[in-house]
Amino acid sequence: MTGRQVGRSRELTVGELSARSGVAVSALHFYEREGLIEARRTGGNQRRYRRDALRRVALIRIAQRVGIPLADIRAALQRLPEGRTPTAADWTRLSEGWRDELDERIHRLQQLRDDFTGCIGCGCLSLERCALVNPGDEYGLRGAGPRRLLES
Questions:
Q1: CA 76 to CA 79: how far, in whole Å?
Q2: pLDDT (tens digit, 9 = 90+) per residue, 67-115?
Q3: Among residues 118, 129, 108, 119, which one has the least CA distance to residue 140?
Q4: Predicted TM-score of the model (pTM)
Q5: Distance separating alpha carbons of residues 4 and 8, to the nearest angstrom
Q6: Up-side HSE of residue 44: CA atoms within 13 Å toward CB?
Q7: Are 11 and 49 in contact (CB under 8 A)?
Q8: Could you read off the pLDDT of 8-59 as tens digits, one per residue?
Q9: Using CB atoms within 10 A of its CB, is residue 28 exposed (0-12), middle (13-18) or buried (19+)?
């Protein structure tokens, strides 16, 4: 076997990538269309994925699970090295890029949870007093009218 054949024999079909990653074939096709993963085509027009696609798919799924937009995932994946499986240092660098955003989301969710607990059942519907929707009557300071709608 030549070096090229050895490398290709370690490639995965779309079915193998689906089975190993637990992601539907249709989702893999979507990821490919969106530029998140790449496949080469055989002479018979079949997709073949490098083995590092497994790690990329895992990262995509994890990032989606915590709400990171696909555009941000794509940008991060484009910073990973081509032609080799990313190292632990590559993955660390990539995940650190999302740390601040995730910390901010966690903070906002905790605030929402804490403020929401006080709102359940109150029925006030007052934007003047509502600490959840309008803390400190910020919208009232911006002027009259439906500020939330006007400023969206």
A1: 5
A2: 889 999 998 888 887 766 778 888 888 888 889 888 988 888 887 777 6
A3: 129
A4: 0.66
A5: 6
A6: 3
A7: yes
A8: 568 999 999 999 999 999 999 999 999 999 999 999 999 999 998 998 999 8
A9: buried
